[in-house]
Design a protein that fits this description.
Layout: E1 2-5, E2 8-11, H1 25-44, E3 46-51, E4 57-59, H2 66-87, H3 90-96, H4 102-118, H5 120-131, H6 133-156, H7 176-205, H8 213-247, H9 250-270, E5 277-278, H10 285-298, E6 342-343, E7 346-347, H11 355-365, H12 368-372, H13 375-384, H14 387-393, E8 395-396, E9 398-399, E10 403-404, H15 411-437, H16 444-476, E11 499-502, H17 507-530, H18 537-568, H19 583-608
Parallel strand pairs: 8-11
Antiparallel strand pairs: 1-2, 3-4, 3-5, 6-7, 9-10
């Protein structure tokens, strides 16, 4: 009897007798055992819930990790560079080049930002239901690239903007055609932003295996570095790009954004073979939610009892029963079997849903309290890029004898606080927490709580600073009124006459709210991705980003309500000039609302802090 191996031929016989290759039979057997174990290890390194670009189970050693995640982060930093580079200085273009009124210009900027984040819901729906995250990112990056290219052309061609004003009386606003071309390019960018932001973070998280302790730790670092990249892109936008726009030309700055998006898209596509692709749902997650709701409403009169049979509560080939949880028990009726639910072996999904589907919908509903208590933070955030900049415009901003810091550039302190907070947390707090507490960093709920508390303190600080600024304004006795934008004021600069008080006293409020955003954003991102069902992660990211959109819209609503109420009482808080109003009272109101919101959040966080149970996998036709 002979054994054939690459190393030679061994004759059967004594265990220690060498063969022709000089290797004993026992050594050969040991070598084959090692080879067999190596094959088993290679097989075990294939992910069951992710595939490679060919559709085969993803090999952990060849796909995923930091390199593909870095390519995805490149898309995000260029998206932030483009969106913020356009948004932070857009109002000056609308006033100085398109000759639109100040209030209308401000509303256009707010609507642009709010719509961009609200469209994340659409992007998440398309990614979860049809395209998957990879294809969604590629499509919407191309859309944003197209919109930015169009905006470059619109800002360059004289035919697509009104002629320069020769005087205040001879200043023609943009025509309907010129407005149409401008808004078309702007909202194509908005659509691209929404689709990108709903999928980038989730696809980046897909590159790490939650079941591997080492990669799970890397995922925690990823969420922090993801936001660090966002902040880096924003910082570059509010400094370099704004300078290029004001000093060199709009079209050149927008062209830089366009080139950056093109480069990011090219690099993203080059990583196609290295990505891990999570298996796409067979049905729309939104459709799953609607089916459970409709089925539960149809059976609302049926009494829920422990001896009732629930559809899908026993999996094929398994003896373990999956019973619905007691939380949100009303929805359990959607899984209760009744006559007429199954006709000719076909189930009516609008009358009967599997237990696992009901539990997935419950998981999404349990995210809503935390979702609702984080909206107000983004209302606070909106003040940092509106009223806080207006405050800076009335104050001394000189550095040295000749350099005057633009009012809008004070957002650098805001962005800088975000970056420094993330760096300290990433390099100091997380390693310390891992070493002495045994786990990596703060939980997502703890991060959000810290951020909400800091934002409340930030608003209280802002109110105190504004009280001091208003006292100086009254002492001057000639309160200034912000001028209506003149035809020659194309850069959006403010008048040189300023209050004798340094604008640097505004820095603490920028730092506090900036640090708060670092905690809230990363905490929300982590919470919504890790607490949502596998098939709804991209949709849940869109829901999280909708809090930013609603925060912008709530800010507009709150400002309008406060202005209307206080104007009727004859003591306006928000007048035509902040020097004649009571912005400190408005900030104080936000501080109180933020404190109350923080208390509500603590209650919701305690309810959500329990470990989520895993939803058992069922047949494909029963999963969302």
């Amino acid at each position: 009897m002979e054994y054939i191996n690459a190393g030679g031929v061994w004759n059967g016989g004594g265990g220690g007798r060498p063969g022709p290759a000089g290797i004993s039979l026992s050594a050969w057997w040991w070598d084959m055992s090692i080879h067999h174990r190596s094959l088993e290890e290679n097989m075990s390194r294939q992910m069951t819930d992710a595939v490679d670009y060919r559709g085969f189970p993803a090999d952990i050693s060849k796909t995923g990790g930091w390199l593909p995640a870095a390519l995805i982060l490149g898309i995000e930093i260029c998206e932030r560079l483009t969106t913020m580079g356009i948004a932070v200085n857009l109002v000056t273009y609308l006033i100085g080049s398109m000759h639109l009124p100040s209030a209308e210009s401000a509303n256009i900027v707010t609507d642009f930002m709010g719509t961009s984040f609200m469209l994340c819901l659409l992007g998440g729906f398309l990614a979860d239901s049809f395209f998957g995250r990879y294809l969604t990112i590629a499509i919407f990056t191309l859309l944003q690239l197209t919109g930015t290219g169009m905006l470059t052309v619109v800002s360059e061609l004289p035919q697509l903007r009104p002629p320069p004003c020769t005087s205040a009386q001879n200043c023609r606003p943009a025509s309907n055609v010129q407005r149409f071309m401008f808004f078309l390019s702007l909202y194509i960018i908005s659509l691209g932003t929404g689709g990108l932001k709903s999928s980038v973070s989730g696809f980046g998280a897909d590159q790490f295996d939650e079941n591997d302790d080492r990669e799970k730790t890397q995922m925690s670092y990823f969420f922090n570095r993801f936001f660090l990249f966002i902040s880096t892109g924003t910082l570059f936008a509010v400094t370099v790009l704004v300078y290029v726009q004001d000093r060199v030309g709009r079209s050149l700055a927008y062209g830089i954004c366009c080139a950056a998006m093109a480069a990011a898209l090219a690099l993203f596509l080059l990583g196609t073979k290295k990505y891990r692709y999570k298996k796409k749902s067979l049905e729309s997650p939104l459709l799953c939610v609607l089916q459970v709701m409709v089925a539960a409403l149809r059976k609302r009169k049926i009494a829920v009892s422990g001896d009732r049979f629930f559809y899908g509560d026993q999996q094929q080939g398994k003896k373990k029963r999956i019973l619905p949880s007691n939380k949100l028990g009303f929805l359990n009726k959607a899984a209760m079997m009744e006559e007429g639910d199954i006709i000719q072996s076909r189930r009516n999904s609008w009358r009967l849903c599997a237990v696992s589907r009901v539990e997935e919908v419950k998981m999404m509903i349990r995210l809503l309290p935390v979702w609702g208590t984080t909206i107000l933070f983004w209302t606070v955030y909106a003040q940092m890029i509106t009223f806080s900049v207006e405050q800076a415009a009335t104050m001394e901003r000189a550095v040295g004898k000749s350099f005057q810091i633009p009012a809008g550039s004070f957002t650098v302190f805001f962005v800088g606080a975000i970056i420094i907070t993330l760096a300290i947390y990433d390099r100091l707090v997380m390693p310390w927490w891992k070493k002495y507490r045994g786990f990596t960093g703060l939980t997502s709920l703890q991060k959000i709580g810290i951020g909400l508390l800091l934002s409340s303190i930030g608003m209280a600080t802002a109110a105190a600073v504004e009280t001091k600024r208003l006292a100086v304004a009254r002492q001057v006795a000639t309160p200034m009124k912000m001028p209506a934008p003149a035809a020659t004021n194309t850069a959006g600069t403010w008048p040189e006459n300023t209050l004798p008080i340094s604008a640097f006293i505004l820095v603490p409020q920028f730092i506090l709210v900036g640090a708060a955003e670092a905690f809230v954003y990363t905490g929300q991102l982590d919470f919504f991705i890790t607490r949502s069902p596998k098939g709804m992660k991209t949709m849940s990211t869109g829901i999280f980003l909708s809090t930013i959109s609603l925060g912008f819209f709530l800010s507009s609503l709150l400002v309008s309500a406060v202005k209307t109420i206080t104007d009727e009482e004859g003591k306006p808080w928000l007048g035509d000039s902040i020097n004649n109003g009571r912005l400190d009272c408005f900030y104080g109101l936000l501080a109180v609302l933020s404190a109350l919101n923080f208390v509500c959040y603590l209650f919701c966080a305690v309810k959500s802090s329990g470990k989520e149970e895993e939803v058992e996998e069922e047949d494909d036709d029963d999963k969302c």
